[in-house]
Design goal:
This protein is α/β, with parallel strands linked by helices. The protein contains 19 helices and ten strands. Helix 2 packs antiparallel against helix 3, helix 2 runs parallel beside helix 5 and helix 3 packs parallel to helix 10. The radius of gyration is 35 Å and the shape is elongated.
């Protein structure tokens, strides 16, 4: 099995409307009502020139005041009907669009959080959040306005041409002479707009990623007094956005200028030719005005359709970026038919001939690793920096997949297990625990996902916190378990964050614990509390300790020494000291 550094991607032709159709099916009834309202409102608009024709003829030729009054009242009634239809249509379509886009945004997020960590090594979070926000906003605009306006203008165009043809075929030919020019311009400029819009969205995503990175590393930025440099870099990124947007604006402005000139130039031609027919007595003034209104309707429809085509081309770039994410397949995927993991889990772990590389063009990070952890056994993994210790720990919960060999849990290849079974059996305490910006209660309860059963009770959360020696500081906080920890737990000390991370694992109650040296950067008091918590945590559990400091290996039943991705020594602390090899050298220098 080959391991890549990022998820493999398979891009399809960007057809956002076709991809959205399945999401619209649950709203068929609402959309049908909206379509009927749209047709009725468009029909009123097409009837209007005919009513104006009769109104003008009644005023200037028949001099019939009663008929004039009836026609005026009829117009008011028609426009009231049109207003109601427009309200219903816009409300139904907009509310449906909000639901569809929210569902799509949720699906994209749900898909992203299921991709393996390798995907995120090549993508910055700002770029991904830009796709969730800015790109989907473009798609939302496409759905909420483009579809209805496109349908409306098609109805105006088709209805206007039919009514014009029935009224005077000769003037209809003059009116339609501009259509081929407008269509050609739409295709030529539309392609350029699509490319220009994609460029703008890419630069916006890049600027968002830069800002997100600066915010997430704000302490580093300020400690090195780099505020001005970060601002300069962000300013440069914004300048790139403006440059790309201005280039897009030039294309759009030229497009609209050409289309507007051609479309309404046709109206002038109709007005000139129709005026001659009135002078010759072939048309009444009312017929000319109604014909002119139809010509304007057709010209406006042609111009609007050309504009909408340009907007559609712009939205294609954003839409393709969104659907590209949905079409990204995880490099580490769940098996279609997972093997059940026998309960209770014994916690026997084995690495059998495991080799691993982060990508095909990089050297192996691990080579032919054979490692066995028996049920309840504590194994310490030590070695110099870059030896591959963290890589071993990442393979166990399948954050990455092995390049060759296999990893087993209770005798079953972990690639044959569901993520729920595998990751439910493995608990991890990282060196830098990640907390969320909610309360202490929410951060501890994070260990119990909804699908794993009912949410943890107050007693369970307190028991987990007490076992992790965290209640000692929680009870001193003004709001106790309901204290907000701030983004990434910034309001807590390093030792307090570590104890909450351990409390999570106690609540999870896994059979296997991976402990990435949790006391390497703590003060003495915090270290003593965490050492006591870990002593309780590891009791009766299979444990892999990633030891950066050799003082932590004394609790291990066995020590495994890694160097350059290979196991070079195995034994107890005392045995390895006697061998006077790499472990002894590391022990003397620690």
């Amino acid at each position: 099995m080959t391991q890549a550094s990022a998820e493999p991607r398979k891009l399809r032709s960007p057809k956002p409307l076709g991809r959205l159709l399945p999401r619209l099916r649950p709203y068929r009834a609402r959309l049908a009502v909206a379509a009927v309202c749209l047709v009725v409102a468009a029909a009123v608009g097409l009837i209007f020139p005919q009513v104006v024709r009769h109104l003008l003829d009644a005023a200037f030729q028949q001099h019939d005041r009663a008929l004039l009054d009836r026609i005026a009242l009829g117009l008011i009634a028609l426009f009231a009907l049109q207003g109601v239809m427009n309200f219903v249509q816009v409300f139904l379509l907009t509310s449906t669009t909000e639901r569809v886009i929210a569902s799509l945004r949720e699906d994209v997020f749900a898909h992203l959080v299921r991709l393996s960590p390798g995907f995120f090594t090549d993508r910055r979070t700002g770029e991904l959040t830009s796709r969730l926000s800015a790109d989907l906003a473009v798609l939302q605009s496409l759905m909420s306005t483009w579809i209805s306006e496109m349908s409306r203008q098609i109805l105006f165009l088709a209805g206007g041409i039919i009514l014009l043809t029935l009224t005077h075929p000769r003037l209809t030919a003059t009116t339609l002479a501009v259509v081929p020019i407008v269509v050609t311009a739409a295709f030529v400029f539309g392609r350029r707009l699509k490319r220009a819009s994609s460029g703008v969205q890419d630069r916006v995503a890049e600027a968002m990623a830069g800002a997100d990175e600066a915010f997430s590393q704000i302490r580093t930025v300020q400690s090195f007094h780099r505020e001005a440099e970060e601002t300069r870099r962000y300013r440069a990124q914004l300048a790139d956005v403006v440059t790309a947007a201005v280039a897009r604006a030039k294309i759009r402005a030229l497009f609209f200028g050409v289309v507007g000139f051609v479309a309404f130039g046709g109206v002038v031609a109709v007005l000139w030719e129709g005026g001659q027919l009135v002078l010759d007595g072939a048309l009444t003034p009312g017929e000319l005005v109604s014909f002119l209104l139809y010509a304007i309707t057709i010209a406006a429809a042609v111009g609007a359709l050309a504009s909408l085509f340009g907007s559609y081309q712009e939205a294609l770039g954003a839409a393709s970026r969104v659907f590209e994410l949905l079409e990204t397949h995880p490099a580490v995927a769940e098996p279609e038919h997972p093997h059940p993991l026998a309960k209770p889990v014994r916690g026997e772990v084995a690495f059998e001939g495991v080799s691993f590389a982060y990508s095909p063009d990089l050297p192996d990070a691990l080579t032919e690793i054979d490692l066995h952890i028996g049920p309840g056994e504590v194994v310490a993994l030590v070695g110099p920096s870059g030896a591959g210790k963290t890589t071993v720990a990442s393979l166990l919960p399948r954050f990455w997949d092995v390049t060759s060999g296999r990893v087993t849990l209770d005798g079953t290849d972990i690639r044959d297990l569901s993520f729920a079974d595998l990751r439910g059996a493995v608990g991890m305490v990282p060196q830098e625990p990640a907390l969320f910006s909610g309360t202490i209660r929410e951060n501890i309860a994070y260990a119990r996902p909804d699908e794993a059963g009912p949410p943890p009770s107050e007693a369970e959360i307190v028991a987990a916190a007490r076992a992790a020696h965290a209640m000692e500081f929680i009870e001193r906080l003004p709001h106790g378990l309901d204290t907000k920890v701030g983004e990434r737990g910034v309001k807590l000390s390093g030792g307090q964050r570590q104890r909450l991370a351990i409390a999570r694992v106690f609540l999870k109650n896994p059979a296997v614990v991976v402990l990435d040296e949790a006391t390497s950067s703590l003060d003495t008091e915090s270290e003593r509390a965490i050492e006591a918590a870990m002593e309780d945590l590891l009791r009766g559990r299979s444990t892999l300790i990633i030891a950066h400091r050799l003082s932590t290996v004394r609790r291990a039943d066995r020590v495994v020494v890694l160097d350059r991705g290979r196991i070079v020594e195995t034994g107890t602390h005392a045995e390895l000291l006697e061998e006077n090899g790499l472990y002894a050298l590391l022990a003397r220098s620690s």
